[in-house]
């Protein structure tokens, strides 16, 4: 092992690092202003004119789905519970086939703005509006978790700021992101996502290289024996443990459900001109996601080796295996040279800002299309539609910032936090799309009943320990999505056989 450098103090966060972060934020605002001058209508604002390049949109899809939660949560999960989570890499080909060849062709046949307009064609307005409300709730909770995690878990500890500053910093991050999203629309969001993806990758590579070098080489990051606290590497079925099967099914279900029902994903497919280009978007996103996932797995092992060998580098109250989510921010503070700290912090902020900007733009599309023009029945001219979308973006940004201050009261590490809170609606939302696309006899009543059933199952599993629900309190959070999705689909299919749609039901053909 190489001789480690002398541990710098928190004062090593220099003006150079701060300047890098400030320049990054100003650059994002500049991109928003640039694209705002080239905005013609709401279709440009929400879908980029439906002619965007598949590579950049694919990078945007990756950046939108990856957040600071994942960037910190993946290494923390590996440090605390072991590398079982890495087994989900074998799911990528399955996801590509299912989404690329079964879902995307059905999605791309509809020239819609909101994904939930598709539901109305077969199930009617009630299903469309329920789905849009579920999506807004899902992404609002998710964005709040992302903002909170970035500020509380990264910015505050790295810059040695008081915890009381968290709400104000959430506001700053939210305002900057919302401003460039409101001004530039999807084109600005995609362009900033591309830049943020590159910065994020740079941060991961730099961290891994520096840790490996100081430990004596890449081989030094791997433990010589299986730590006692790690979950046993099990392939078989088990309700309560972290198993290969649990991670695999959770990942497959999450990706398929998200790509097939989430406005953030469908919006990006619709931003490209053809089914082929939409499939390229998915391929690009999955490839980058797999690359970053493996990199962050290595970073997790590197951090574990780094702090196990140097326990004195831990802050008071921190432990390698009890507080793994804090190790990466701690390393950024004490282990990186001047300038690189600013780059890595910008990378972590990039993960959050790409998620927030994409979420704000997507929810704005749903609110302005499904709520304002649908539920409220407003007849808006093209210029008014653009204004409505921008106002919706601004309002959603304010709501997310406010809600992020309450995320500290939810228990669990960041990976579990994402699954328990942000994915609560993922299964039920996809159930509605599954009923629309693959159950010919489905009606609005049976589809909604199936979605509500899935929602009840997901909530019961997610909060079973707090609610002391018999038989469910020992189920791992990994099974929340697969179980709720399966039960919802089965219930919907059975109900559709017993209570089929009336012959006058609207066809799902465009």
UniProtKB/TrEMBL annotation:
Gene3D superfamilies: Sodium/glucose cotransporter. Signal peptide: none annotated. The chain crosses the membrane at residues 12-35, 56-74, 86-108, 129-151, 166-186, 198-219, 239-257, 286-307, 327-348, 360-381, 387-409, 421-439, 445-463, 475-502. It is a multi-pass membrane protein. It is found in: Cell membrane. InterPro entries: Na/Glc_symporter_sf, Na/solute_symporter, Sodium:Solute_Symporter_SSF. The keyword Transferase does not apply. GO terms for molecular function: symporter activity. Keywords: Cell membrane, Ion transport, Membrane, Sodium, Sodium transport, Transmembrane, Transmembrane helix, Transport. GO terms for cellular component: plasma membrane. GO terms for biological process: sodium ion transport. PROSITE patterns: NA_SOLUT_SYMP_3. Belongs to the sodium:solute symporter (SSF) (TC 2.A.21) family. NCBIfam families: sss. This is Sodium/glucose cotransporter. It comes from Aeoliella mucimassa. The lineage of its organism: Bacteria, Pseudomonadati, Planctomycetota, Planctomycetia, Pirellulales.
